[in-house]
Design brief:
The complex is a heterodimer. Chain A is mainly α. Chain A contains eight helices and two strands, in the order ββαααααααα. Chain A has a domain of 94 residues. In chain A, 31% of the residues lie in helices and 6% in strands. Chain B is mainly β. Chain B has one domain: Methanol Dehydrogenase, Chain A, CATH 2.140.10.10. In chain B, the strands form ten sheets. In chain B, strands 1-31-32-33-34 form a five-stranded mixed beta sheet, with no helix packed on it. In chain B, strands 2-37-36-35 form a four-stranded antiparallel beta sheet, with no helix packed on it. A four-stranded antiparallel beta sheet of chain B has the order 3-4-5-6, with no helix packed on it. In chain B, strand 25 and strand 26 form a beta hairpin. Chain B starts with a helix and ends with a strand. Classes of the chains: A mainly alpha, B mainly beta. At the A-B interface, helix 5, helix 7 and helix 8 of A face strand 28 of B.
C-alpha cells in the first residue's frame, strides 16, 4: 500500500439477513466506524521486529502456518522461537521473557492486529493457498515493519471490493451463514 | 404387540411397497415439518402433561464439527424413518443415527476435500423418499442437490452427475457471477423432488428463486416455475420495463409443503432484490412475497396471494406454509396458514386461495426516497390479531434503565418512525418487527384436536439507512445501516416483552393464551419483570397436550401446556437450541430431540443433538 493510498476509509459495520451481529448482554458495536490508516502500532508483550526476521529469509507462513481446517493463520510455538534464540540474543530481556513462556509451555499473549467478526467465515486457506493472494494484500508491508500497525481495512466493503476485483463471489453466503 | 407398535409396524409394512404419499406412521417424524403439510403435530402421547416433568436426557450425539470462531450454528430438525434418524451437522455433514441410541451409522460430507474454505452455510435438515425398496435421502448444500442411498449414505450414481445436481444449471437465468443457496429441505411428491432456494436479496446482482421439480430417480428437471415471470407469463406485467431481467431474490428459502391429496405444492416466497429499495422494479413484483400454490406434477400456478406488494421492508414469507384442517364457522376447511415476519397469521382455503378470515387492503404512506413508488395499499388480515407489536412509536422506547431509554431515544429521534409499513427513509427508518420477525423460519404448529395454532414470535427492531453507491457499484442505493437496534447492554430497543408463545383458536381467530417466552436472568435479578427473549426455531405440539419449543437465549427447551400455556417442564441445554425440535417413538419410548448448536447472536457454538425421554 502506498503512502498516498493510506487515506481515510469510512467503513460500515453491517449485518446480513439472518445473522446475529450482537451478543445480547454485550455492548453493541457502533454502526459506523471511521478507520484511519495506518493505525497506532499495537504494543505486544514481547517486542518483535518483522523487518529483522524477514531479512533473514523467514517467510510469513514459516511462523504463521495455516491451521486446520484452514480458517486461521497461527502463531509460532515458543519452542520454535527458542530454536534460534537459545543462542541468539539470549541475554536480552525480551528473550528471557520468551524463554520463560517456552519453559512454562504457555503461549505468548500476542495482541491481534487484524480482526474479523465471528459471523465472518474468513478462510486463510482460500485466500493464500487457493487464490494465491499475497499476505501483504490484507496485512500491508509487514516484512518492512519494525512494529505492526493495522494498515488496511477489514471492512465488508473492502472485502467486497477485492472480491469484485478478483472475480470472487460477493454472495452473502460466501462469508456468512445466511438464511 | 401394543397399539403403538402395531401401528408402527403395520404402517412400515405398508410403506415398503407404497408411494411416499402413504400416511406416515404415527410414531415417527418422517418429514422436516412432521408431515407433508408441515403441521408440526405428532400423535405421540406417551409424554403427557402428567409425566412430562420426568423428562431427562436419554442420549447426546456430538457431531464433532462445531467451530467456535467463526461460529457454526445448527438449525436442523432431524427426521426419523424406520428407526433411523437423519440429520445435518454443524458443518452440514449428513448423518444417520440409530434413533433409539444416538449411535452413528454413516456420515456423508458434501464438503469433503474442501474443509476450512468459507462458510459451511445453513441446513435445516434432509428429505426422505421411498419407492418400493428404493430408499433415498435428498439434501441440499448451497447450490447442490444430493441424492443419497438412505441405507448406506452413498451417492446415488444414477441421479444427476454421480448423485449431484448443480442447481445453478437448468435455471432459465444467466447465472454467471451469481450464487445460489438452498437452506431448507426440499419436498417430495410422487416421483418428484421439488426445490426452491435461490439468490440473496442485496443491492448487488442476485439470482432469482425459480422453483423446480426434478425426477427423483434421474435428477432430470421436469418442470420449472419462474418466480419472476418471463414475458408472456402471468404476472410479468407486475415488473416495470425490463426490471424482471435484473430481479433476484423472490425465493422460497424457508421450505415448502405438499397437499398430497390435491397434488399441490405450497411455497412462501421472499422479497425481490434489492429488498429495501424498489425504484428500479416498479410494480407489485409478483411472485415476490406471495403464498404460492403450484400443481406439484407440472409446476403450473394454481393460485397465489401476495402478502406484501412491492416489498421494501425485507418481509419475506419466512416459514413453510402449514397445511392444516381447521374447524371454522361451523365448517371444516382444508386450510393453508402462512405466518409472516410482520406477525400476521394469514389463513386461506387451500383449494381456492380465498382468505378464511377477511383480509383488508389498507392504505400506507408514500415514500420520499428518490425513484421509489410504493404500492398504495397492503393486505391486513382482520383476524387473528398480530402475534407481536407492529410499528415503532415513542411509547415503545425501552424502559429497562435510564441509560437504555436515553440511547434508544437518540436512535429513535434520528430515524423515521411510525406504524407498520412506514416507508424506508434514506437517512434511516425503524422497522418493527424487524426482518428477523415476528415469527421466522420456525413457523407454527397446529393441534387438530384442539383446533389450535401455536406460534412463537419475537420483538426485534431493525434500522435501515441508505448510502450512495461507491466507485464501481451499479446500484442506486447501498446500505449504510441495517442493524438490529439494541440498547447499550445489548437488549432489544423496544419495551419488553421480547418473546412470546401464542395459542390461537382457529374457529374464532382469537388468542386462547399468550405467554412470555424465555428469560434474561440478569434482568430478573434487577427486579425487571420477566422479559422473554427472542428465539430461533419453531415449536411442535403433540397428542399428549404439549407444545415443545427451544431457541430462547436462556438456552432452555420448554414444554407448554397446550390448554393453558403454563410451562410444565424446562431444561437448560449446553448451548442455545436454535432449531425446531422433533419427537418420535423408538423401542417403546417417546423421544424429544433438539439440536443444541448455539453460535447465534454471539453465543458459543456447540455440537449436540440432545434426546430426552421419560425417567
Amino acid at each position: 500500500m502506498t503512502n498516498s493510498s493510506r487515506l481515510r476509509w469510512a467503513s460500515v459495520i453491517l449485518g446480513c439477513a439472518g445473522l446475529g451481529v450482537f451478543a445480547l448482554g454485550q455492548k453493541p458495536a457502533p454502526r459506523v466506524v471511521e478507520e484511519i490508516f495506518p493505525q497506532k502500532p499495537t504494543v505486544q508483550p514481547i517486542p518483535f521486529s518483522h523487518k529483522v526476521h524477514s531479512g533473514l529469509g523467514i517467510k510469513c507462513l514459516d511462523c504463521h502456518p495455516i491451521r486446520e481446517p484452514g480458517y486461521q493463520a497461527g502463531y509460532p510455538k515458543e519452542t520454535t522461537c527458542m530454536g534460534c534464540h537459545a543462542s541468539i540474543k539470549k541475554d536480552s530481556e525480551a528473550i528471557r521473557k520468551l524463554e520463560e513462556f517456552a519453559r512454562s509451555r504457555k503461549p505468548v499473549p500476542w495482541v491481534k492486529v487484524y480482526h474479523v467478526p465471528d459471523y465472518v467465515w474468513f478462510s486463510h486457506a482460500s485466500h493464500v493457498q487457493d487464490a494465491k493472494i499475497a499476505c501483504e494484500t490484507c496485512h500491508g508491508a509487514v516484512a518492512a515493519s519494525e512494529v505492526i500497525a493495522k494498515e488496511a481495512s477489514t471492512s465488508m466493503h473492502s472485502c467486497m471490493q477485492c472480491h469484485a476485483k478478483h472475480g470472487a463471489s460477493n454472495a452473502c453466503d460466501s462469508c456468512h451463514s445466511s438464511q | 404387540m401394543d397399539r403403538r407398535t402395531f401401528l408402527q409396524s403395520s404402517a412400515a409394512a405398508a410403506s415398503a411397497a407404497a408411494l411416499p404419499a402413504a400416511p406416515a406412521p404415527l410414531s415417527e417424524w418422517r418429514v422436516y415439518g412432521a408431515d407433508d403439510g408441515a403441521s408440526r403435530y405428532s400423535a405421540c402421547d406417551r409424554i403427557s402433561k402428567a409425566n412430562v416433568k420426568t423428562l431427562n436426557p436419554a442420549w447426546v450425539h456430538r457431531t464433532g464439527d462445531a467451530v467456535v470462531r467463526p461460529s457454526t450454528a445448527m438449525e436442523c430438525t432431524p427426521i426419523v424413518v424406520d428407526g433411523v434418524m437423519y440429520l445435518t451437522t454443524a458443518q452440514i455433514k449428513i448423518r444417520a443415527l440409530d434413533a433409539g441410541s444416538g449411535q452413528a451409522k454413516w456420515t456423508f460430507d458434501p464438503l469433503a476435500g474442501r474443509p476450512g474454505r468459507g462458510s459451511p452455510g445453513v441446513s435445516r435438515g434432509v428429505t426422505y423418499w421411498q419407492q418400493g425398496k428404493d430408499k433415498r435421502l435428498f439434501a441440499t448444500w448451497k447450490d447442490r442437490l444430493y441424492s443419497l442411498d438412505a441405507v448406506t449414505g452413498e451417492l446415488d450414481a444414477k441421479f444427476g452427475q454421480q448423485g449431484i445436481v448443480d442447481l445453478t444449471q437448468d435455471f432459465d437465468h444467466d447465472m454467471a457471477g451469481l450464487s445460489f443457496k438452498h437452506t431448507s429441505p426440499p419436498v417430495v411428491f410422487e416421483d418428484l423432488v421439488i426445490v426452491g432456494g435461490g439468490g440473496g436479496e442485496g443491492p448487488y446482482p442476485e439470482a432469482p428463486g425459480h422453483i423446480r421439480g426434478y425426477d427423483a430417480r434421474t435428477g432430470k428437471r421436469r418442470w420449472i416455475f419462474h418466480t419472476v415471470p418471463k414475458p408472456g407469463e402471468y404476472g410479468h406485467d407486475s415488473w416495470a420495463g425490463d426490471s424482471w431481467k435484473r430481479a433476484g431474490g423472490t425465493n422460497c428459502w424457508a421450505g415448502m409443503s405438499v397437499d398430497v391429496k390435491r397434488g399441490l405444492v405450497f411455497a412462501g416466497i421472499g422479497s425481490p432484490s434489492f429488498d429495501f429499495y424498489g425504484g428500479d422494479r416498479i410494480g407489485a413484483n409478483l411472485f415476490g412475497n406471495c403464498v404460492l400454490a403450484l400443481n406439484a406434477r407440472t409446476g403450473e400456478r394454481a393460485w397465489h396471494f401476495q402478502v406484501v406488494h412491492h416489498d421494501v421492508w425485507d418481509y419475506d414469507m419466512p416459514a413453510q406454509p402449514a397445511l392444516v384442517t381447521i374447524r371454522n364457522g361451523g365448517r371444516t376447511i382444508d386450510a393453508v396458514v402462512q405466518v409472516t415476519k410482520q406477525g400476521f397469521v394469514f389463513v386461506f382455503d387451500r383449494a381456492t386461495g380465498k382468505p378464511v378470515f377477511p383480509v383488508e387492503e389498507r392504505p400506507i404512506p408514500k415514500s420520499d426516497v428518490a425513484g421509489e413508488e410504493l404500492w398504495s395499499t397492503q393486505p391486513y388480515p382482520v383476524k387473528p390479531p398480530p402475534v407481536n407489536r407492529q410499528g415503532f412509536f415513542e411509547k415503545d422506547i425501552t424502559n429497562i434503565s435510564p441509560e437504555a431509554t436515553k440511547a434508544v431515544r437518540e436512535v429513535f429521534e434520528k430515524s423515521k418512525t411510525g406504524p407498520l409499513y412506514t416507508p424506508v427513509a434514506k437517512d434511516g427508518v425503524l422497522i418493527h418487527p424487524g426482518f428477523r420477525g415476528g415469527p421466522l423460519w420456525g413457523g407454527c404448529a397446529f393441534d387438530p384436536k384442539r383446533n389450535r395454532l401455536f406460534v412463537g414470535s419475537d420483538e426485534w427492531t431493525n434500522r435501515v439507512a441508505f448510502r450512495d453507491p461507491k466507485e464501481g457499484e451499479s446500484f442506486r442505493y447501498g446500505l449504510l445501516d441495517r442493524s438490529v437496534v439494541l440498547d447499550p447492554e445489548g437488549y432489544p430497543a423496544i419495551t419488553p416483552p421480547w418473546g412470546y408463545m401464542t395459542a390461537i383458536d382457529m374457529d374464532k381467530g382469537d388468542f386462547v393464551w399468550r405467554v412470555v417466552n424465555g428469560e434474561f436472568a440478569a434482568l430478573t435479578a434487577r427486579g425487571i419483570p420477566k422479559t422473554g427473549t427472542p428465539s430461533h426455531g419453531g415449536a411442535f405440539c403433540t397428542a399428549g397436550g404439549l407444545v415443545f419449543k427451544a431457541g430462547t437465549f436462556d438456552k432452555k427447551i420448554r414444554a407448554f401446556d397446550s390448554d393453558s400455556g403454563e410451562v410444565l417442564w424446562e431444561y437448560e441445554l449446553n448451548a442455545g437450541g436454535f432449531a425446531t425440535p422433533c419427537t418420535y417413538e423408538a423401542g417403546a419410548k417417546q423421544f424429544v430431540v433438539i439440536a443444541a448448536g448455539g453460535g447465534k447472536d454471539g453465543s458459543k457454538a456447540n455440537d449436540e443433538f440432545v434426546a430426552f425421554a421419560l425417567g
